[in-house]
Write a sequence for this structure.
């Protein structure tokens, strides 16, 4: 048997690992196609640019109380150090030594660190939240969060912390917010400290992706960069009364040459349909990122093509129809002197790596920053420090820079940040800020109807699995590493007949102790 993966995000890497570890497939029979020269790991990226500055599109938060499939996988992957420990063991040990406890979660326009032990919820807010939590997904349908919660709720400390921790917008899916409230109910009592958040020792590319990539390579798995899959030929048979879909060939393009790969016999195909990092673009310290769309990247074209006439394969238009509703912008700052880190640690009361997000609640851009434990990259030179930030409203004019963030270079973003902190601009002497525009970064949060997301193995599919943030997995939540890994494990096990059970979603919302603590917090 052979297997081909279209796209090289964390779902593809996980899927290949499950094929080798659990399905007994020979790694030499597995190929991962990636259209970029060498960008494996999808959103879990991290790189050093030509000028010595660093760039991170984002950073996924982890927890040890959730992410069941992810930890199951990473327990099998050796870390890239001589200890012989697994990636999971190294991550747990790191977080034992570096415990998160934010002391400056929300900061107002007066640079005042807000008291956030109280959620600020009125009785009306609480009743609306209960109504949302108890509503069925059929009843919620494709409604937005604003259809269920009133305007005053969106001014509460709870919403500001929840929104910026998970990157929700008020127009996003009510179903997805309900799922998050259930899945992370045990995080609600400590949302102001981010005490449940776990991070990797270095950035997630070096700590998760690279060890996984090295392990797969050692098993013989082939990574083929600069390879674009332009078509998936699918034969749909309805003679038996049930539609059966079989991938018969893949058309790939490499170095201007096309090639057709036959997949009719003993071949599985796993496709990462849709991408939250599609059409991303980097700016510079002086210039804003180019405004790219799916027309530039063609990143959604293949899903749109194979979904035509096949409702089992989902509806990509539900997710990619409106960039303004799925866009935000991040930025990575490389500091070559300690002034900013020293000033920020003194202001926040947190040593780098222990504080989590600091959100400027009155910022028109709704800007947040996080100081990582240093070094954040294994090759980071002595005296260099790296931090990351993002803004949920890059289309709005700033408070200290009179134009939208989307039109700013990195230097202007640092000027805006200095304004909110009332820091002297000298803290950023010798710093480089690299902005990143992400037009589809929260596309998976868009309101959707049942059927808009395909199952990991759609009904009737004989050899095609979907592994991405845009598949349907009951009870779990998108915009997490776990969702991609769980999708991959589900698809691999279903198509290969693996009998090993998939780790179930932990239902913290069914734990009486969690329910009690959450109720107490809601009335704080």
């Amino acid at each position: 048997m052979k297997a081909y993966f279209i796209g090289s995000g964390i779902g593809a890497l996980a899927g290949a690992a499950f094929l080798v570890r659990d399905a007994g497939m020979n790694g030499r029979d597995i190929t991962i196609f990636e259209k970029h020269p060498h960008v494996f790991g999808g959103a879990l990226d991290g790189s050093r640019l030509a000028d010595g500055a660093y760039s991170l599109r984002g950073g996924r938060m982890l927890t040890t109380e959730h992410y069941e499939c992810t930890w199951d996988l990473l327990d099998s992957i050796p870390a890239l150090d001589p200890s012989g420990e697994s990636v999971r063991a190294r991550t747990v040990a790191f977080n034992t030594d570096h415990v998160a406890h934010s002391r400056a979660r929300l900061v107002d326009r007066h640079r005042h660190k807000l008291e956030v032990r109280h959620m600020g919820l009125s009785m009306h807010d609480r009743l609306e939240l209960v109504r949302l939590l108890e509503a069925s997904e059929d009843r919620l349908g494709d409604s937005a969060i604003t259809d269920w919660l009133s305007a005053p709720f969106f001014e509460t400390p709870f919403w500001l912390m929840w929104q910026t921790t998970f990157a929700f917008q008020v127009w996003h899916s009510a179903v997805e917010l309900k799922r998050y409230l259930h899945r992370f109910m045990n995080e609600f009592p400590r949302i102001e400290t981010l005490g449940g958040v776990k991070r990797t020792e270095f950035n997630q590319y070096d700590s998760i992706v690279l060890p996984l990539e090295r392990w797969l390579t050692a098993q013989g798995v082939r990574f083929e960069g600069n390879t674009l899959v332009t078509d998936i030929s699918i034969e749909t048979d309805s003679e038996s009364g049930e539609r059966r879909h079989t991938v018969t060939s893949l058309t790939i393009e490499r170095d201007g040459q096309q090639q057709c790969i036959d997949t009719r016999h003993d071949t599985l195909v796993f496709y990462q349909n849709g991408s939250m990092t599609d059409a991303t673009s980097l700016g510079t310290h002086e210039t804003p990122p180019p405004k790219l769309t799916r027309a530039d990247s063609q990143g959604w074209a293949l899903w749109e093509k194979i979904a035509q006439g096949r409702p089992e394969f989902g509806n990509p238009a539900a997710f990619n129809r409106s960039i303004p509703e799925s866009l935000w912008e991040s930025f990575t700052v490389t500091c070559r002197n300690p002034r900013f880190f020293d000033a920020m640690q003194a202001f926040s009361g947190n040593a780098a790596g222990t504080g989590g997000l600091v959100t400027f609640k009155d910022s028109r851009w709704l800007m947040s920053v996080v100081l990582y434990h240093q070094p954040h990259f294994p090759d980071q030179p002595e005296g260099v420090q790296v931090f990351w930030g993002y803004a949920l409203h890059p289309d709005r004019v700033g408070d200290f820079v009179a134009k939208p963030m989307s039109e700013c270079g990195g230097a202007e973003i640092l000027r805006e940040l200095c304004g909110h902190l009332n820091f002297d601009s000298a803290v950023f002497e010798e710093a480089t800020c690299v902005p990143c525009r992400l037009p589809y970064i929260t596309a998976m949060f868009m309101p959707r109807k049942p059927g808009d997301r395909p199952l990991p193995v759609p009904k009737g599919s004989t050899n095609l699995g979907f592994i991405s943030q845009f598949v349907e997995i009951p009870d779990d939540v998108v915009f997490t590493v776990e969702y991609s890994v769980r999708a991959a494990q589900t698809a691999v096990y279903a198509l290969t007949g693996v009998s090993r059970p998939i780790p179930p979603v932990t239902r913290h919302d069914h734990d009486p102790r969690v329910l009690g603590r959450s109720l107490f917090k809601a009335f704080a």
